[in-house]
Design a protein that fits this description.
The protein is globular. The termini are far apart. 27% of the residues are buried. The chain contains six helices and no strands. The protein has one domain. With 131 residues, the chain is mostly helical. InterPro entries: DoxX (IPR032808), DoxX-like_oxidoreductase (IPR051907). Keywords: Cell membrane, Membrane, Transmembrane, Transmembrane helix.
């Protein structure tokens, strides 16, 4: 078990990076139709979806590199909670049926990062190491 515990900060970094890159993809789809347009998104985007897209791209990029991880993850966790209740909960109770699984998962992974921090491989960790 100790051999696994040594890797925990690095695996935390991998969780943060992969989550942030997947999160950024949602914003890129909204804003730039990359890798494709987000299915069901109106064109032009209403202000709330435009703001969500920029939070996803910029916030996702900051979390991916591990810069200001805790406060940005807090904002993104809240964004996903709001997204779930505004866009998914009204479609039914079960997340697998209302399309809200990703929003819930992003919400709780970002909330975890608020408390756990970015992990070993991050700009935040590099800034802390400076004398």
């Amino acid at each position: 078990m100790e051999r696994l515990a040594v890797w925990a900060p690095r695996v935390l970094s991998l969780l943060r990076i992969v989550t942030a890159l997947l999160f950024m993809e949602h914003g890129l789809m909204k804003l730039f139709h990359f890798p494709a347009a987000q299915p069901g998104a109106p064109d032009p985007l209403p202000p709330m979806l435009l703001a969500a897209g920029w939070l996803e791209v910029v916030g996702g990029a900051l979390v991916a590199v591990g810069l200001f991880t805790r406060p940005i993850a807090f904002v993104l966790s809240g964004q996903m909670a709001v997204a779930y209740f505004l866009a998914h909960a009204s479609q039914g109770f079960w997340p697998a049926l209302n399309g809200g699984e990703a929003a819930i998962l992003f919400c709780f992974v970002f909330l975890y990062l608020v408390f756990q921090g970015p992990g070993e491989w991050s700009l935040d960790a590099q800034v802390r190491k400076r004398p």
